[in-house]
Amino acid sequence: MLTTQIRAFKAKMAGGPVFGIFSKSGDPAFVEAAGHSGFDFIIIDLEHAATSVETAQNLIRGAQIAGILPIVRVKEDRLSVIGEVLDIGAAGVQAPQIVDAASARAVVERAKFAPAGARGVCRFVRAAEYSSLERDRYFRESNEALVIAQLEGVEALRNVESILSVPGIDIIFIGPYDLSQSLGVTGQVGHPLVLEKMTYLVELCSRKGLIVGTFVDTLANAEKWIAAGVRYVAYSVDVGIFTEACRQLVAALASMRPA
Predict the structure, then answer these.
(1) 33-65 pLDDT, tens per residue?
(2) 135 within some domain
(3) Model confidence at 167: pLDDT above 60
(4) Whole-model pTM?
(5) C-alpha to C-alpha distance for 152 and 154, rounded to whole angstroms
(6) What is the rounded CA–CA span in Å between residue 34 and residue 170?
């Protein structure tokens, strides 16, 4: 089981920022490369990528080989998948568009076995080593999987106090791009209104002793939000990082052409 790795990850996050990327390629090689490069976690994206639960299983295997913590982001309207991705070995689930306490509780309920929740019970799954793990230990330790709630709209802002009061959530994740759209400035993640709301959420979570995370796609933004107290830092996307590296390489090579 991933219990030891999850506990070490939580301890590291309690002491400072942890770094990861989103996986949209569907290729385990990208996942392994991220792990071997030293990233702490990778978010396997089922929301904005052509990735199925079946594909995610091999991505999780790649993560475990390379020692990087596999988190799976599920689709907004497919919370039923939470149990499935935990069954195949995800170390945590990230749920988008949490708008109120009820939606936050629904995620916790589907991610945890009783008495903490009502996740469907089966021990003949990959996470339980296909029943090789001792039964009670599996059900007990499975409840240590990370639960990450994404807040990314004005409705969530209105209900934030009640959302943060829901037990069982490990990380509050601010989605800056969807937040910008909800605030009427689509894609403008550096807009003063977006920055104001993000700062408010970070400070509120910090006062309540909650870990907060966000997405960044520049080093300047990473530095800004780390300084503000963000601990779970998702830096860009595997295919985006690859594209940027290729662009820089092509530009460098082109500069070598004879005049």
Answers:
(1) 999 999 999 999 999 999 999 999 999 999 999
(2) yes
(3) yes
(4) 0.96
(5) 7
(6) 23
Residue 181 resides in a domain: yes
- Residue 217 — φ and ψ, nearest 5°? -135, 20
Here the tokens at position 106 are: 């629904």
Let me know if 191 is a catalytic residue: no
* Residue in 48, 78, 137, 158 annotated catalytic: 48
* CATH number assigned to the domain comprising residue 160: 3.20.20.60
Nearest 5°: CA angle at 175, between 174 and 179? 105
Placement of tokens 């995370």 in the chain: 213
Q: Which amino acid is at 110?
A: R
Q: Could you tell me the sign of the dihedral formed by the alpha carbons of 149, 150, 155, 160, in that order?
A: positive
Inter-helix orientation angle 192-207/219-228, to 10°:
40
For the chain, the straight-line distance linking the first and the last C-alpha, in angstroms and rounded, comes to 59
Does residue 259 belong to any structural domain of this protein?
A: no
Task: Show the domain range for 230.
Answer: 3-254
